[in-house]
Design brief:
single chain, 254 residues, alpha+beta, two-stranded antiparallel sheet, 38% helix
């Protein structure tokens, strides 16, 4: 097998993004390039030089439509999430390239409470469930860092978590995210991933086209407010030592 370069993986990710964008435009499903992809579009007009993936976001109603309608649109790609693939280990979904390398993360944004105390509680619960889900997914006897006492605690925790059904904590993460789904709140948040990301809904009242890798994709008209919620002063480059890939993987041609 031949190892793929980072640039080749990025090219495949953009091809997947093109299909997603075309599908959403045809079905009138609102999406936006999100997280580091949106930051890259605004600051670099493409990938952040050290980034290695593509992210998009959707509000809950659009995410549910995408989840129910995308598969079958293009046989080269499949949208996988816990709701349509019961063994899926994450709360959010991904569009995967059936031929091998390449994927796009699809994050959903649910209603967030307007009360700050209740909001922090949701994020704390999400973080706790993420840690439990991560521990539950690891093999019991995989190496644990630290002294002998820490290693013993780590192995004991993994053993105890195996008493829960395999995807128990994924279900709990999704349930936590939907806590305010039937309420008319003024904010939305990401309770499926890891960022402490929330914002007022008016950020997503309308969308504009932004440049990314020489093409145009959707971004919230209020992208400045959204990016500041994620990154603070997002036009400021991070220190050199933090300009590294987020993911550690190797991809090959089949």
């Amino acid at each position: 097998m031949i190892e793929m370069t980072l640039e080749e993986i990025k090219k495949i990710d953009v091809e997947i993004l093109d299909v997603i964008a075309k599908f959403c435009d045809e079905r009138k499903i609102n999406y936006w390039i999100d997280c580091g992809t949106l930051l890259g579009a605004i600051r670099h007009k493409g990938f952040i030089p050290w980034d290695d993936d593509v992210d998009i976001g959707m509000l809950r109603p659009d995410y549910d439509r995408f989840m129910n309608e995308f598969n079958g649109y293009d046989p080269r790609y499949e949208f996988c999430c816990f709701e349509n693939k019961s063994e899926w280990p994450l709360a959010f979904g991904k569009v995967l390239n059936r031929a091998g390398a390449g994927q796009v993360d699809v994050f959903f944004y649910d209603n967030a409470p307007d009360d700050d105390k209740a909001l922090r509680k949701m994020f704390r619960r999400r973080n706790f469930l993420h840690k439990l889900n991560s521990l539950r997914r690891k093999r019991i006897f995989n190496p644990v860092n630290g002294n002998i006492f820490r290693r013993m605690l780590g192995h004991a925790a993994r053993f105890m978590l195996r008493l829960f059904p395999r995807y128990y904590f994924v279900k709990k993460l999704i349930k936590n995210s939907k806590r305010y789904v039937s309420e008319d709140t003024k904010r939305v948040g990401n309770f499926s991933a890891w960022d402490f990301a929330y914002c007022s809904k008016d950020v997503f009242d309308s969308f504009i086209d932004v440049e990314f890798e020489g093409k145009k994709y959707k971004a919230p008209a209020g992208y400045d407010k959204w990016l500041r919620a994620f990154y603070g002063d997002y036009m400021q480059l991070p220190p050199v030592e933090k300009r590294v890939q987020k993911h550690n993987f190797t991809a090959y041609y089949k």
